[in-house]
Amino acid sequence: MAHVGCTSNANKKVGVVAEVCSPDTRTHTIAIHLDFCELRDFSYSQDSQVSTLIHEVSHFADTFGARDVVYNMSECLKLAKSQPELALQNADSIAGYVFYGG
Prior knowledge:
By secondary structure, the protein is mainly alpha-helical. It is built from four helices and two strands; from the N terminus they run E-E-H-H-H-H.
């Protein structure tokens, strides 16, 4: 991530399979970690390569500029009910919308 002006925190977090530098609107680089290759290609009910890429793309400043408030759909649904404006800024909520529609 250093080549696009960011410092990776992935080695400090368990389960990180991909990451982006949200201000990187020139190259839109997505850093793919080895565990990404172990994910299923597509799934409606579990993490997948497709859902991970949608999640990561939503972080770029020129797409949604999304944050990581909560993860997984059950938590996203709770967030949507309790704080809908915050859910609109959450990367997993955006990925869920793409998968399940509005």
